[in-house]
Amino acid sequence: MRIVTASEMYEVDRFTMEEVGLEGKMLMENAGRAIAEGIMKEISKQDEILVLTGPGNNGGDGFVIARTLYLKGYRVRVYSLVPEEKIKGDALYHLNILQNVGVPFHRLQNGELAVRLEGMDVIIDAMLGIGTKGALRSPYAEIVDKANKCEQAMRFAVDIPTGLSSDEGVETEVAFKAHKTFTVQCPKESAFIEANAQYYGELEVVDIGLFTESLVNRPGKKVWLKEDVVRTFPVRERFSHKGSHGRGLIIGGAPNMPGAVMMAARAALRAGAGLVSIAASHHLISTIAPYVPEATYTDLNLKTLDIDSFHAAAVGMGLGRSEQSASLFEDILRLANIPIIIDADGLYHLKKMKNMLKEHTAPVVLTPHFKEAADLLDTTVSALKQNPFSLTRAFSTEYGVYFLLKGPYTIITTTDGDQYVVTTGNESLAKGGSGDVLSGILLGLLLQSHHITEALCNGRFIHGKTAEILTRHTHSRYDLLASDVIEGLPMTLRTICK
Ligand SMILES: NC(=O)C1=CN([C@@H]2O[C@H](COP(=O)(O)OP(=O)(O)OC[C@H]3O[C@@H](n4cnc5c(N)ncnc54)[C@H](OP(=O)(O)O)[C@@H]3O)[C@@H](O)[C@H]2O)[C@@H](O)CC1
Ligand SMILES: Nc1ncnc2c1ncn2[C@@H]1O[C@H](COP(=O)(O)OP(=O)(O)O)[C@@H](O)[C@H]1O
Ligand SMILES: [K+]
């Protein structure tokens, strides 16, 4: 499912209207009806419903929603924040129909509504959409603030909550706090910015018949969905052997962090890897081996370890930050000609030698969380949180790496700048070890997949999905351990990726 900026959405609108020939009025009718259908599932006919409308097409969607609800017998009225003379085009067309049908219609007088927002059971925000520029002006800011204070009301936003930008990089002062946002055709970039989650609430995408084909040739952003996992998950052939599913190498294991490589190895095997080897300090091997008997072990000595005899490697989990491990990491990066995942302490060392990435020809996957990523990109966590798409895309294309920016909304960027968002998972994963398990799953899938992007998206999807399934059935969001996620993978794989 494509994620768009405002300008991309306008291009989709233009293409659909001018080149395909679907009229704007009809698109507005489709949008309003689809959103009204969604809202009707959440409200009752006893509810007092107020639709707040603005000057543009977002307001036009609001007129269609109000008419649809009214004709179905709901108690709805419309409040326009602008005089009728300001309403033009398709929105005016639908305002006329609204008035012909007899839906109660009022407009704001001297900045005040003639009804108390506090008395409303349902407030629908069709004030501003993707045409929003800058901070809210009066009277929008005041009305939005009042609406947000109506604690008893269910609040729905049309397309985007009024006050938010569609694009990343814009700080929000005041915005409508929706319980649920019905977004038109494609989620907008800003829906995946952490600070905006409190305004969007739950997000539902409504299909109104727009054609997104006009965007096909641009580097794109997409949400990776279950149907994408089902379509691309590696198939296990009946006559395959262990070598068919890849030989993976995990390099790490500082004496005080034996768990990281252990969990990564076990997760890689559970995700389907054919063979997994752990290269760790020989003191550690006897400690780890009983916990992952299916793996093989080798001393972490680059004179004897032939990295390229493996199909892919993961390095950095529990590697340590000593000078010695820094030079070990540098040697690995210089020697490896296989796809390599770099996580945790590997990312720490990489910061000082990131120019090596430009010379490196084999695929490199970086899996930082926000703090690690901000360090690597020489920026702050808050700047990265506000501009995660553009900053990671710039880094990926400059350094030629795959970048998996870990978080509740994980953004995966390819070397070409295409981006995928994976939103599975919940706060049960906010616990030490989750990242090690993810690295293991990613390695397991990298070994079995023809496409690196699919391996990364699928790996991150099943990691989060497993946490969702476990916290729904057998665990709480408090107790879940990273190793529980490994043991929960069978449930996810059996249901999604048979
Ligand atoms: N085919 C279609 O057309 C379809 C359209 N669709 C729907 O249309 C929506 C986009 O409609 P749109 O382009 O009319 O923009 P929209 O956001 O409603 O209003 C812009 C107005 O806001 C005003 N304004 C801006 N910033 C402001 C601020 N900070 N504070 C205060 N005011 C501010 C600005 O005023 P101005 O600055 O020009 O005076 C301008 O007049 C889209 O989100 C979707 O819901 C869908 O139904 C699909 C089919
Ligand atoms: N609140 C959350 N919601 C969903 N996923 C989360 C949340 N917090 C963490 N995660 C996931 O857990 C993992 C944490 O990785 P990381 O911070 O590297 O953990 P560690 O280094 O402790 O192993 C990431 O995959 C991230 O997407
Ligand atoms: K809106």
TrEMBL record:
Its cofactor is Mg(2+); K(+). GO terms for molecular function: ADP-dependent NAD(P)H-hydrate dehydratase activity; ATP binding; metal ion binding; NAD(P)HX epimerase activity. Keywords: ATP-binding, Isomerase, Lyase, Metal-binding, Multifunctional enzyme, NAD, NADP, Nucleotide-binding, Potassium. Residues 9-216 form the YjeF N-terminal domain. (6S)-NADPHX binds at residues 57-61, 129-135, 140, 159, 260, 318, 369, 436. SUPFAM superfamilies: Ribokinase-like (SSF53613), YjeF N-terminal domain-like (SSF64153). It comes from the Bacteria. Residues 225-496 form the YjeF C-terminal domain. Gene3D superfamilies: 3.40.1190.20, YjeF N-terminal domain. Binds 1 potassium ion per subunit. One of its GO terms (biological process) is nicotinamide nucleotide metabolic process. Transmembrane segments: none annotated. It catalyses: (6S)-NADHX + ADP = AMP + phosphate + NADH + H(+); (6R)-NADPHX = (6S)-NADPHX; (6S)-NADPHX + ADP = AMP + phosphate + NADPH + H(+); (6R)-NADHX = (6S)-NADHX. K(+) binds at N58, D125, T162. AMP binds at K406, G407, P408, Y409, T410, G435. Its EC number is 4.2.1.136, 5.1.99.6. Homotetramer. HAMAP family: NADHX_dehydratase, NADHX_epimerase. Bifunctional enzyme that catalyzes the epimerization of the S- and R-forms of NAD(P)HX and the dehydration of the S-form of NAD(P)HX at the expense of ADP, which is converted to AMP. This allows the repair of both epimers of NAD(P)HX, a damaged form of NAD(P)H that is a result of enzymatic or heat-dependent hydration. Belongs to the NnrE/AIBP family. In the N-terminal section; belongs to the NnrE/AIBP family. This is Bifunctional NAD(P)H-hydrate repair enzyme. It comes from Melghiribacillus thermohalophilus.
